[in-house]
Amino acid sequence: MRFDVLTLFPSMFEAVLGESIIGRARSRGIITLNFINIRDYSEDKHRRVDDYPYGGGKGMVMQPGPIYNAYKSVVEGLEYKPKVIYLTPQGKVFNQAMAKELAKEKHLILLCGHYEGVDERIIEEIVDMELSIGDYVLTGGEIPAMAVIDAVCRLVPGVLGNEESFKDESHYSGLLEYPQYTRPPEFLGRRVPEVLLSGHHANIEKWRKEQSILRTCSKRPDLMDKILLKEKKEQI
Ligand code: ADE
Fold first, then answer.
1. What domains can you pick out in the chain, each with its CATH number?
2. Is 33 left (phi over 0), alpha (psi -120 to 50) or beta?
3. Residues 182-225: pLDDT tens digits?
């Protein structure tokens, strides 16, 4: 799968996406990430990419020209149109179901805004989807883009060593994951639940399922409501 990120701060990305699981997937060629500096596509002699908002108001707005030129440099010669995602607090709030859908795409372009956002016309012209990573405002779209890339990449087949490893985890089935334990069997007087030491796989599975439900009810009752509502709808 390929990602092209249009950003004013390409160097922010390598530190995060050059390491660990994503870093390994990149060196194995499963994932390709390109970071494109929008400033390189400015036609201004001072490499300017922003200007004052028409109508007045605070802050600066990213101009459409440099973003469009950067976008063109990515799509030129392609026989398909990659989906373009703009990271903005005005977007739909990103979740695991969206990550699963996006992991089916072969190529995504992520546009990171800064200042007071981007000129509306670039959204109209090239953007297919607006995503937010939560109802709070960050200084730019770079951290949200990294969050989306990380969440999507780890669902691409072959990125995680063991395909099973995300099937059990929180949010995959709509429920939170059961509690995990490792050695030692006792820590500061707290024992690992006996069932996990029993070697009885059916009992362990049953315990984990119950724990998932209990945890979801106590930590994220909103998620439990969603699951129950979905089940009810399916019965109708
Ligand atoms: N840019 C600034 N804040 C953001 C957010 N919460 N999600 C996505 N992009 C953003």
1. 2-153 (3.40.1280.10), 168-235 (1.10.1270.20)
2. beta
3. 999 999 999 999 999 999 999 999 999 999 999 999 999 999 99
